[in-house]
Specification:
The chain is globular and about 80 Å long. α12 runs parallel beside α13. The longest helix has 15 residues. β12 and β13 form a beta hairpin. The protein has a five-stranded mixed sheet with strand order 1-5-6-7-4. Strands 10-9-8-11-14 form a five-stranded parallel sheet, sandwiched between helices. It has a three-stranded antiparallel sheet with strand order 16-15-17, with helices on one face. It folds into three domains: 129 residues, Sulfate adenylyltransferase (Roll), CATH 3.10.400; 147 residues, Rossmann fold, CATH 3.40.50.620; 94 residues, no CATH class. The chain has 391 residues and is of the alpha/beta class.
Amino acid sequence: MESLNKNKIFIDKEAWITLAMVQAGLLKPFDKLMNSKEAKTADKEKKYKDQSVPFSFILAPAGKKNEEILKSNPKKIDLFCEDKKVGEVNVEEIYEIDPIERVKNIYGTTDAQNYPQVAKTLKRLGKYAIAGDFWVEDTGIKKRVDFVREKTKNLTSIIGMTMHAKPIHRVHERIMRMAIEKHDLLIVFLIKNIQEEEVPYKLRYDALNEVITNYFPKDKILVVPLLNTYIFSGVNEAILDAMIAKNFGCNKFIMGQTHKGLGIHYEANHIKSIFDSMNLDIEVDTINEYVYCEKCKTIVSVNSCPHGSHHHISYHSDSIFELIKTGLIPPTILMRKEISAKYLAHLFPNRFKNLQKLYYDISPNKGLIEESSDEDFYIALMKLYQTSSLT
């Protein structure tokens, strides 16, 4: 649709999605583009409408044409993304900002050389911010919110956690089981990047969903995609994740003690975090690191195991994924064989010249060569690895 308004401001997809999240109520108390006074209070006192916030919510798009429009102090602005009108702002105020200070508020640093996200944000950040009420075309977020609220309307105890699941491993499962034991529902917010990912969202979702479908009560866990826009990349990620969970209906949120931005420290012999200085009206619980102990022969918390770290195997998704990328099959104490098979089949398509014969030769069969997938082959191979009668 061609706009009759000449005051067009161009924004990128990340800004559009972030505005849509606010519009859907996922980042309450954010409900508008803040004016200069509100923004200053939010950044200095971490407050907006008497509620805790990590920083101000503003829109300050870069670009020469955008700057020219904003300098003219328009009363109404049309928002465009990739030549398509996606929203409007009823302008309350146009005011100048300090992009360096803005980046510091989001990321806790201005070091663009060592933090690529800082450099990226500085490129997309202009000198003038727009204040006022707005609307944007929904990107599917409202539908998702409505679906979750319908699913949870009769529940009283809902716990949330964020996860990349790259890949989902045994400790993820342990934490999920702990979460559903005392709560009506666990909402897993599966991180979804806007840009292309090394591990596609669909692969991570399918793997997570397979584990949930086969090994968990199906009505106890709900997976919700969480779009990872620029505001989630800084030191306030933990706070924003908790805000999202609360606004989806969770009354408790759990995260690991190594979660970025959590700021774990000891004070008067008690563990403290960033949440001790903020009131988000949601209970936040930090969980200990879990490892596999070769002495205990099971997954244990480092705080409950009497054996030293030299007996422990860590569960770091990045390291497990590096193993998979080489084409090796991770041991089943790290992740389920079905998930390893799914990842290997994705990363190494058409790897074998005669897959059907290989599958026929290494797996029990009924005498007939049946059509089998790469995943079937990897699972059959892993079953052989687990066979111990000749070892």
